Amino acid sequence: MADTDALVKAHGVTVRYGPKVAVDDVDFEVYPGEVMGLIGPNGAGKTSLVECIEGLRRASAGSITVAGLDPVADRAKLARVLGVQLQDSVYPTRIKVFEICDLFASFYPDAEDPEVLLEEFQLSDKRKATITKLSGGQRQRLSLVLALLGKPEVVFLDELTNGLDPQSRRSVWKGLKKRNKAGLTIVLTSHYMDEVTNLCDRVSVLIDGKVVVVDTVPGLLATYGSQAVANVEDASGEASLEDVYLYLAGADAVPADQTEGA
Ligand SMILES: Nc1ncnc2c1ncn2[C@@H]1O[C@H](COP(=O)(O)OP(=O)(O)OP(=O)(O)O)[C@@H](O)[C@H]1O
Predict the structure, then answer these.
(1) What CATH number is attached to the domain comprising 250?
(2) pLDDT tens digits, 128-176
(3) Radius of gyration of the chain (CA)
(4) Where is the ABC transporter domain (predicted)?
(5) Residue 191 CA: which ligand 1 atom is closest?
(6) What ipTM score was computed for the predicted complex, to two decimals?
(7) Could you say which DSSP state residue 4 is in?
(8) pTM of the predicted protein model
């Protein structure tokens, strides 16, 4: 697919914090309707990159557009297109679940019905609870409800299912797959390789601020599977995405254009 078709286009993005280069000349493209996974070790630069794309942080260098919009200059317009999972520290402290849903819904001309979303993500019985009284997993699900309320074209989900019980994870995956089938583009960061395998059409591996490879899960397994399995001490059977990830994270960066079959 040509780059011009991409919904998210980030080119040469660099993020510096003083002398620290957190994101180093990264190209990152996401096409309409795909689920893109962004994986990498703690501190690899995932959040810094995603925050630039969301318009929450200005890149030190590089260019970014989302649906043709500049995330910083066109932030108000971008809010109609982009759904972002928020950290709960940004919520007003005493607000109740249904109140924050109604507030967020009021920002959009054609929002989803909050009650339907609360039901879908098993929060209906918590609708009158204040946010501070929710468990960590319930807050995670509320942040997803709020990200989806405005019927975005693309949603960015940061460690979406951290702390969720297996049942909740499955219902979150199901809800996302349903929306993806209906056209929602999804970018997610995750440390759970089963989640990435289950949900993502393509995966970008970010290590030390650089994207070392972008491929489908089967593509990654085909290219790196045998080396990855050889890298596992008590290897038995087929390589998993986790084996490949551990192999890549432990190996020196492999430029995408030098990998076999890339
Ligand atoms: N505001 C900041 N000021 C200074 N350094 C920062 C700041 N934010 C992040 N960093 C540093 O930049 C690097 C990348 O951090 P970032 O949070 O983007 O990584 P990450 O891949 O999202 O990590 P994690 O998986 O732990 O969430 C880290 O070394 C981090 O310490």
Answers:
(1) 3.40.50.300
(2) 999 989 988 899 899 999 999 999 999 999 888 888 899 999 999 999 9
(3) 19
(4) 8-233
(5) 25
(6) 0.97
(7) G
(8) 0.91
Full residue range of the structural domain in which residue 62 is found: 3-258
The kind and range of the H/E element at 48 are helix 46-54
State how far the Cα of 239 lies from the Cα of 222, in Å rounded to an integer: 9
Q: How many structural domains does the chain have?
A: 1
Ligand 1 environment, Cβ below 6 A:
17, 20, 22, 40, 42-48
Tokens 């507030």 locate to 103
- Contacts by 107-114, CB closer than 8 A, 24 or more apart: 107/79, 107/150, 108/80, 108/149, 108/150, 108/151, 110/151, 111/149, 111/150, 111/151, 112/148, 112/149, 112/150, 112/151, 114/145, 114/149
Residues for the chain: how many in total?
262
